[in-house]
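Researcher: Go.
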Amino acid sequence: MRVLVTGGAGFIGSHIVDVLIEEGHRVVVLDNLDPAAHASTPTYLNPGADYVWKDVRDADAWLGCLEGVDAVCHQAAKVGLGKNFADVGDYVDANDVGTAVGLAVLHRQRFAGRLVLASSMVVYGEGRYRCAEHGLVRAAPRRPERLEAGSFDPTCPSCDQALEPDAVPEEAPVDPRNIYAATKLHQEHLCLAYGLESGSPVVSLRYHNVYGPRMPRDTPYAGVASIFRSALEAGRAPVVFEDGGQVRDFVHVADVARANLAALSAGPDVAGPFNVASGHPHTVGQMAGALADAFGEEAPRPEVSGEWRTGDVRHVFASTHRAKEVLGFEAEVSFADGMRELAHAPLRSSVGTAGGAFSD
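Model: Structure:
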C-alpha cells in the first residue's frame, strides 16, 4: 500500500511514517516544515519515505503527491488551545482550509481510497456525566463566577448537584468549546461529506492526550505534558491549572501510530469515529507528579495555581470499546512507563509560535 501522510514530519505524523515503513508500506509525506513547529528539518525523519516540503493549502502540492496513492492519512494541523481568540484565523486557515483544498483535489482525481483523519477528543467538549438523580446528563458550560470561586466541577443542569464523570463513547453528542475543537469537528464533517460522495471509507481518529518523543517544546500550542516536561527541564515547577483534578486519558504516541496503522489497514466497511486512548485515565495533577518523579528527587514539585482558562473543560476521557472491537486496537504503553520515557525523551524546538499549519 502507498500512503500519503500529511504532516508526516511532525510529532504524531513521523511516528505513523515509521510504523508504516516498518510494516512494508510505501509512504509519501506532505509537510511544510512550518517554523512554528520546526526550528529546522528534523533529524528523526525516516529515510524510507519520500518527502514533499509544501503546504496542505497548496492544491498543486496535493496533486504532486497522489500518484499511485492507495490511502491518505491526514495529520497536518495547527494544534493546541493557542493563545486566545485572536488565533481563530490561523486555525481555520490551517485546519479547515487545508483540509478543504486537499479534499477538492481528491475529488478532481476521483480518489476513492481510504481516508484517515487525525481528529481529537476536544470535539466532545465537556465529557460524559451521570447525576445520581437524573442519570446521564449534559453538563452546561462552566460559569466564570464558579471558576473564580474555585468550584471547578460542573453540576447537574436540573438539580445543580455534583456529577460523576463517565467514559465518553463515540456516539456522545459533540460540543466543541474552543477554536481548535471547532476546526477539528469541521474537518470531520468535511471528510464525512467527501466519503459520502466519493465512496471513500473515512475514519476519524479522536486522539486523547497524546505524549511521547518528538513533542514540540513549550509553546502556547503544545500539549500539557510537553509544557510540564519543558518546565522541569528548565528547573521550574510545572504549574497545574485549577486544582489539578481534571481527568484526562494520556496515550503514548507509539500507540497512536499503531491505531492509525489499524485504521489504514481495516476492511472497506470500517468507517466513522474512533476514540484513540489508553483506557486508563489520570488527573492532570497525577501526570505532573509522575513526570516530576521521573526527573528525580531534586526536581521541583508541581504547583497548583488555581488559574483557569476559558475554553478548557473539566473531565473528558474515552470509552475504548469500539476501537478494540472494530479496529482491534488496544494501547500497550503503560502510563508509568510512558512518563518515565517522556522525562528524558528528545523534544522538538520551533522558531516561533506565529502563523501556519503545524504538522502534528
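Model: The first helix runs from residue 11 to 22.
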